[in-house]
Every structure is written in C-alpha cells, then in structure tokens.
Amino acid sequence: MKTLRDNLWLWGQTPNSHHAGNTYRLPGENKMNAAEGCAFFGIPNCCRVAMGAGPFPPFDEESRQIAHLRQVVWSVIGAGSVSRNEDQDGDLEEVIRQAKLFPNITGAVLDDFLCERRIALYPPERIVNLRRRLNEEVGRHMDLWVVWYDREIDAPVQRYLDICDVITYWTWYGCNLSSLEKYLDRMIAATPGRRRLAGCYMWNYGEKCPLTAEQMQHQLDVYLKYLRSGELEGMILCSNCIADIGLPTVEQTRRWIDRYGDEIIS
C-alpha cells in the first residue's frame, strides 16, 4: 500500500534558474537546491532536470546529493534552454552512467519535448532507440518519462506518447486551470495503459504572474480527486526554484501535503 506522499515528486532544478533574466517576473531570490526542496516538502522522489543554467555533465555530485531519495529520474533531454548533444540523444550517455552508479535512478525524462523544434529533431524511431539503449545499457528496467503541456493538447504527438512509459501533464497557463478536469480527461483518454502524473505549478509561468489562492486550491482539489480514483499515479511539484521566495501558494501546498500526505491511495 502506498500513501499520497509516497507518490509525490519534486521537479528538481538548479537554484536560481527560474530567475534567470527575470523572464517569469518572479520575486525574491532562490537558493534552495533539489535535495533541500525534497526535505522542505517532505517528499521522497525527484525528477532532476537540466536547465540552460545547469547542471552540466558529469552529474555525479548532483546525484550524490539526492542518493538518499527513494527514486530519481534524470532528464535525458533537458529544458528547452538546453541544446547540447542534440545530434547525440542529449544526455543519454551521462544518464546511463549515472544509473549504473546510483541504483535509486529509475528512469529518464524528456523535458519540453513535444514541441515542433524537438519533434523535428527526434523522430519516433529515434526515441524508440533511445529507450532501448537506456534499458539495455543500464541493465535493468528504466522508465522513459515525457512532459506534455496544456498548450500541446491538440498537437499530433500520439506516436511519442505511445513510446513512453510515464506521461506527466502540466498546466502552463493558469487560466486553463478552470478547465483542468477536461484537460486531464483528454490526457487520460490518450494514454491507456500508461502511468500518469500531474505536474503542479505554484506560479503562473505562462502568464508570468502569481497563481491565486483559488486557482491553487482548485488545482490541488482536482489532483486529489484523480489520485484517489487511480487515474493519476502521482504529482510533481515545480519546484525547489520557487520554494524559498515567499510565495503563499508554496505554504498552501505544504499544508495540503500535511493534511493528505498519509492517505492511502493505492
């Protein structure tokens, strides 16, 4: 039996990377790293994702910092600001090496992937081969994760969804949270037999402003409903990069975890 907390993940990224250039109009200063973020929220799993600001291979020190966690998934293709090794399957070689060194690494994620630029670079057969190499060269099962945004819900991405083991769904635009259940139902219908997790933003990145308390609560309420029904396996908090800058939505989320974290959901 697993609790809700067992199925919570942190979207772990390099401190201050969300503040770079002040693109998202975030307040404050971020110093909290991924390991500290997991401790802060009291959650046992981390998706460690490369940004343009780092980390850069080798990832040994980053993996050591989160070696105590239950599960870690590294980005094999990082955020949209990462363009290194695109002709060589991104950071695949390094993620394979890390997984051989750290047994708590259980998968790899394709971040910011289902956009026109990256789909043009990575036809489906290339992702099939990436997934094959990941499993064969690590020598144990490794899940391939992918990020799917609300803004991509109508994009022709089914072939990629069918290749991946785990689908993570994210609402980039806070205004779309009012229709969250409709979006989730479409995501679920498109991903039969797949594991599904919901990305949970605590800032409105798409509209570059705070999420209201009402938007945040609606998001948490909907995710709780789908977690209880089993249609979602888990939830991913984004992220340590905004957890220490004084956002009310962060404390709202921590209270929600305190209230429901020990509830049995599977």
Described by the principal axes of the CA atoms, the overall outline is globular
Mean pLDDT: 97
**CATH domain fold name:** TIM Barrel
Output the structural class: alpha/beta
Poorly predicted regions: none
Order of helices and strands: EHEHEHEHHEHEHEHEH
Report how far apart the termini are.
5 Å
Architecture (CATH level 2) name:
Alpha-Beta Barrel
Question: Main β-sheet: number of strands, strand sense, barrel status?
Answer: 8 strands, parallel, barrel
Rg estimate, integer Å: 17 Å
Q: Strands across the major sheet, in which order?
A: 1-2-3-4-5-6-7-8
Spell out the blueprint of helices and strands.
Layout: E1 8-12, H1 34-41, E2 45-48, H2 60-65, E3 71-77, H3 92-101, E4 105-110, H4 116-121, H5 124-138, E5 143-149, H6 158-163, E6 166-170, H7 180-189, E7 195-201, H8 213-229, E8 234-238, H9 248-260
Parallel strand pairs: 1-2, 1-8, 2-3, 3-4, 4-5, 5-6, 6-7, 7-8
Helix pairs in contact: 3-5, 8-9
Q: What can you tell me about this protein's structure?
A:
It is a single chain. With 266 residues, the chain is α/β, with parallel strands linked by helices. It has one domain: Phosphoenolpyruvate-binding domains (TIM Barrel, Alpha-Beta Barrel), CATH 3.20.20. Helices cover 34% and strands 17% of the residues. It has an eight-stranded parallel barrel with strand order 1-2-3-4-5-6-7-8, surrounded by five helices. The protein starts with 7 loop residues before the first strand and ends in a 6-residue tail after the last helix.
